[in-house]
Amino acid sequence: MTSVDQLSQQPTSKTSAVESDTKQQDNNNDVLFPIVGIIASAGGLEAVTELLKYLHTDTDMAFVLIQHLSPNYKSQLAEILTRATQLPVTQVRDRMVMEKNHVYVIPPNTKMILSQGVLQLSPREKVSGKYMPGDAFLRSLAIDRGTKAIAVVLSGMDGDGSLGLTAIKEAGGMTFSQCEATAKFDSMPNTAVATGNVDFVLTPQKIAEKLASFSRDFKHSD
């Protein structure tokens, strides 16, 4: 944009200044779009790929994938998932501001949380038991988005995501789990279901379809 173009868009009266302020307020409200936290581990890539394949590109939601990765693994997950969807897929950088209709992928060897719409990275924590990056992210998502927080727990061998999913349910958000019949490893989704806090137990394709339905409801309620 040229300097002339920029000058032509500046408010030239009190009325246009008020209109500018109103537009800015609308933009601020628009920031509070729903965010979907997707937790996956062993066998999860196939499930995530199927979910993204059937996901509409105009849901006005953002999607964050917490895939369990080896700490020393150079991830090509974002590139792989780009083949499954027309949505932009990005490996997260620290303090990345989220945009709707985008997919964000956690980098290896990191912990990631959400704060005021910004993805924050820190070094992976050393723990004595199993590392649960999904729970950490979903808890932060519950605080940040409340009723516009959505949790999806897919295939995996441990219980990651269950505590975070419960936090989202308690905040008034929505929760999904992959059905046992389609999960290569059902420990993670079954542990989530056992909490009693899962709203829908579906195939990845049906989860995508349900998210599209809910996106229409969110748009009408705003």
Automatic annotation (TrEMBL):
Q: Name the source's superkingdom.
A: Bacteria
Per the UniProt record, which EC number(s) apply here?
3.1.1.61
According to the UniProt record, where is the region Disordered? 1-25
What's any one GO cellular component for it? Answer: cytoplasm
Q: Which GO terms describe its molecular function?
A: phosphorelay response regulator activity; protein-glutamate methylesterase activity
Q: Which UniProt keywords apply?
A: Chemotaxis, Hydrolase
Which residues catalyse the reaction? 41, 68, 160
Entry's Gene Ontology BP terms: chemotaxis
Domain CheB-type methylesterase, by residue range, is: 32-213
- Which reaction is catalysed here? [protein]-L-glutamate 5-O-methyl ester + H2O = L-glutamyl-[protein] + methanol + H(+)
User: What name appears for this protein in its UniProt entry?
Assistant: protein-glutamate methylesterase
